[in-house]
TrEMBL record:
Organism, scientific name: Polyangium sorediatum
Domain Response regulatory: 4-123
PROSITE patterns attached to this UniProt entry: RESPONSE_REGULATORY (PS50110)
Tree of life domain: Bacteria
Name of the protein: Response regulatory domain-containing protein
InterPro entries hit by this protein: CheY-like_superfamily, GAF-like_dom_sf, Sig_transdc_resp-reg_receiver
Phylogenetic lineage: Bacteria, Pseudomonadati, Myxococcota, Polyangia, Polyangiales
Amino acid sequence: MSAFALVAEPDPILSAAQVAVVDALGLVPLVAQDGERAIWLLRRFGTPALLITSLSLPVVDGFEVLDWLRARISGRSAKVIVTSPFPELRAFAGALREHLGISAILPRNASPDTLRSLAEALLKGAELPAPLSEAARSTPVHSVRSMQEGPRDPRLDWFVRSAAEELHASVALAMVAQGEGRALISAVGMDARRWPVLGGIGRHVLGAGETLVVSDAFAHPFFQGDVSVMEGLVRGFAAAPVLDAAGRTRGMLCVIEPKARLRIGPEGLVRLAERARLIGTAIPNIEPGVGRLLRASRRRIIEAMPDSAPISSPR
């Protein structure tokens, strides 16, 4: 087979853009939407000249794909570019760059021109400097644990139940910020009172506004130390952001396997993201102060009613 490149990316639009870059470089593109398929292609066709992979792949994680490739002697000859929308994951991958044989690390939204020039330089044998630390440029930490639980919402309960059923997940949970430091919470298969323990996962999803999937957190070099994983609540998970009409992140919808790998594939991630978008549409946001205005308005209406016609009296 001619020199080839493997593109491992679950998003079909982004994958197509990366394939176009590979074509322009004169390499034969092979495409995988999950890590299991990526490893199968590596077994079948050998070491690629170039590997472009997301760090968050369904079924088998991007870190596992890199581990598998680097276990092969010939795997060290591949040029590897990893992408992620999550600054902390990129910084963590930078710390493991030499161990995993990573050539370059890019944000997920890097332009095709940036990707092409970088890949071209690597294929010509250029040695790139180590990536700068992203600690100062990472997105602000979104505190999930500081939010207070608001009243239950039957609409949110329905979305969570249907997500668990459709995606065959043992646990599903949604958290939607509702203004004034409150959050609507709904959970299936898990005590809803434990939701603050998922703050570590929520921080990344809320910060980047992107879907995050980790098929096996027990083996994941970054997430295996998360509180939710260490307490036995999470092994595999996928979480999609809930967005408001302006595109701002105001919550997340998660599906979780506490004891087993999460086998959700690329199609399942699409359905999860679609349900998260529906939640943002169906459950309007209450901006800070609006809740107080609504309560004050209701109070004024009650106070203005004549004494002879209290609310509870029959007509």
